[in-house]
Specification:
The strands form seven sheets. Strands 1-2 form a two-stranded antiparallel sheet. It has 18 helices and 14 strands. Bound molecules: zinc ion.
Length: 491
């Protein structure tokens, strides 16, 4: 990154992202102690591909230098004699070069050099050697020598077949299919907007309700004399009411007949979307918005809702830096219901034996239960409120407990401290829950509360120095650091 010219601050950020990760492995359903990975980028981390590209840039430079010094010869392409030596796409690299032992061995040297420099390893078992106009024997002997496979044409690169004549339409089919698949995903949120029905396919477009008629009534579709008929062909508009005007190979019987009745009544009750103002012909209408057809912020938010689980698009938790990052992250996960509570693990197919709460053995363990409503947990919260000299809410729930609700009686630092202490309380409850499950530690409410008092003091007093929190006072009544003391006006 330094060579490419990234600034120091940026490098620090990236390094922080890489080094702050900790990993815990599930062994028979129980997580191990967390540890920090020391080598390489993480699989599935959105940052990894970007870092990889930066590292791969090193390979690009190495090849270019090898070309300049004459150690590697690319191939000339076209009238302009453009020299191509290699193509890179993410972790996919192709070298092009003259077929000579010298060239191939130098390619290997370049790769070796790259391995030593970057710490990345080239997987030769996944690599192929191709020869154009080279005998099979030659190809195989060299492939064997450098430890990779001899490849055959055609092969696929970036989803495209290489080594076949692309002027044959059938060879484009995989590409066409890919696009179709992607489009279908998008089309599913759009519905045909009808003006006259002449440009809308009766069976194939989504114009009536949320489904495609071909899929909902396959028997009727099979019977239609014209599979590509339009809505205009099949629906009669008499006055303001619609009626179905089917055209069948033979009249529908049995289940097809009842399907037809159902479809007829659907069409008779059909009311087309009302915003007909500036639309002159059938067009796609996004069903996620009811204002107009433009792609607004709202549509994009709706799209997110559709594609992501609703819970993941909740507004993020406000940060509170008076606790360690791990506590902040814990609260964030709790609010998004992302903690590995038993019921969630069970839903994901983990065999836990029982989904009952380990502490009360009375209800299934959900996020709400383990952090708020379990009687053993509730007792901690009640003691916690007593310690603060605040009256507890009538009903405990995760959203309220961890929200940054501002009470007018708290100073601004005070509300930070109050919120942070609640977060530490939740974090400690979760920690002791884990200690009980994985280390059989007993659930002792007084000692858990003592731990909450100590941890919150350690973390908060160190981070909000301005509050000048003293341990003895903290233990007796932490709210004395938070409540606004009414100031007497000095005249
Ligand atoms: Zn319980």
């Amino acid at each position: 990154m330094e060579n490419i010219g990234f600034g120091n601050r940026w490098k620090k950020w990236i390094f922080a992202c890489l080094s702050s990760a900790s990993i815990s492995i599930l062994v028979n359903g129980s997580p191990t102690r967390e540890f920090t990975p020391e080598r390489g980028v993480r699989q599935g981390d959105p940052l990894s591909p970007f870092l990889f590209i930066i590292a791969a840039e090193g390979l690009n430079l190495l090849v270019k230098r090898a070309m300049l010094s004459g150690h590697f010869k690319g191939i000339e392409v076209g009238k302009e004699k453009v020299i191509i030596s290699h193509l890179q796409y993410a972790d996919d690299t192709i070298f092009f070069g003259e077929w000579s032992r010298h060239n191939i061995l130098n390619t290997m040297k370049i790769l070796k050099c790259f391995e030593d420099l970057s710490g990345l390893k080239v997987n030769f078992h996944k690599s192929n050697l191709f020869g154009v106009g080279v005998s099979n024997g030659d190809l195989e002997s060299i492939a064997l020598r450098i430890g990779c496979k001899a490849g055959d044409f055609p092969f696929t690169y970036l989803g495209l077949p290489i080594g076949v004549k692309m002027n044959k339409p059938t060879h484009w089919l995989p590409v066409v299919d890919k696009f179709k698949k992607r489009l279908a995903e998008w089309k599913s949120i759009f519905r045909r907007f009808l003006k006259d029905g002449k440009r809308t396919a009766f069976w194939h477009d989504r114009w009536l309700g949320s489904f495609i008629l071909k899929e909902k009534y396959p028997r009727l579709f099979a019977l239609d004399t014209d599979k590509s008929c339009t809505v205009f062909d099949r629906v009669d508009l008499a006055g303001s009411s619609f009626s179905f005007n089917g055209s069948w190979l033979h009249s529908p019987r049995g289940r097809s007949a009842s399907d037809m009745e159902e479809l007829s009544s659907l069409i008779e009750n059909f009311t087309p979307p009302q915003n007909t103002n500036n639309v002159t012909e059938d067009s796609w209408l996004c069903t996620l918005t009811d204002s107009d057809n433009s792609f607004t912020k709202q549509v994009s938010a709706n799209l997110d809702m559709l594609r992501l689980q609703p819970s993941t698009v909740k507004p993020p938790t406000k940060r509170n830096r008076s606790v360690p990052l791990k506590v902040e992250l814990f609260v964030w996960r709790a609010k998004l219901h992302r903690l590995p509570v038993k019921l969630e693990l069970d839903k994901r197919g983990l065999d836990l034996g029982s989904v009952l709460c380990n502490i009360c053995q009375d209800s299934s363990e959900t996020t709400e239960h383990i952090l708020a409503t379990c009687p053993q947990v509730k007792a901690i919260w009640l003691d916690f409120y007593k310690w603060w000299n605040f009256s507890p809410p009538a009903e405990l729930n995760v959203a309220d407990l961890f929200s940054s609700s501002c009470s007018s009686s708290l100073s601004s630092i005070g509300s930070k401290i109050w919120e942070a202490t609640k977060w530490v309380c939740g974090y400690s409850i979760w920690r002791y829950r884990n200690l009980k499950i994985f280390q059989n530690q007993i659930w002792d409410i007084p000692s858990i509360l003592a731990d909450i008092q100590l941890s919150s003091f350690k973390w908060i007093s160190g981070r909000i120095k301005k509050a000048q929190i003293q341990w003895s006072q903290w233990l007796i009544n932490p709210s004395s650091y938070c409540v606004v003391t009414s100031r007497v006006g000095t005249g």
